[in-house]
Amino acid sequence: xxxxxxxxxxxxxxxxxxxxxxxxxxxxxxxxxxxxxxxxxxxxxxxxxxxxxxxxxxxxxxxxxxxxxxxxxxxxxxxxxxxxxxxxxxxxxxxxxxxxxxxxxxxxxxxxxxxxxxxxxxxxxxxxxxxxxxxxxxxxxxxxxxxxxxxxxxxxxxxxxxxxxxxxxxxxxxxxxxxxxxxxxxxxxxxxxxxxxxx
Length: 199
Fold this sequence. Notes:
With about 200 residues, the chain is an all-alpha fold.
């Protein structure tokens, strides 16, 4: 049985030659992971779906200009990441704030926010580059090598960026919850974060 990367390369080569069915198979293989990645990054399901579609449109139009043997998965994630950066820049220009943040600040009461919303709020406080590396490596489970290929970086730079992103996420999470810092980032995939126990 062929490895997924080998199958992707074969499909990409067939699609490069103009075979639409091969490209459709690439879309089928990568649509869900890309959509999930964009949703975790943006927190907006409709926007994530739109950008997933835009990713494949851009990939389709650019595929004929790529080199043979292209690693498709990192290339698609790079396109999706660039589209997400553009969306995040537009969002910051209009100073969008999640409704839950405004309600939480306005109430002044320690309301119990759902864990996912707290995680989203903490994630939104990070720089977009930190959000991307955190989601790629912790939720999408990309290796440092895969993330480096998606972000045009080196594995060592990804490792360092991920460590900084985790530190900033922990601080943002603790600030939102007015609690002790979390010791892990497992909250990103829906689990409860581990809190440091007081001495």
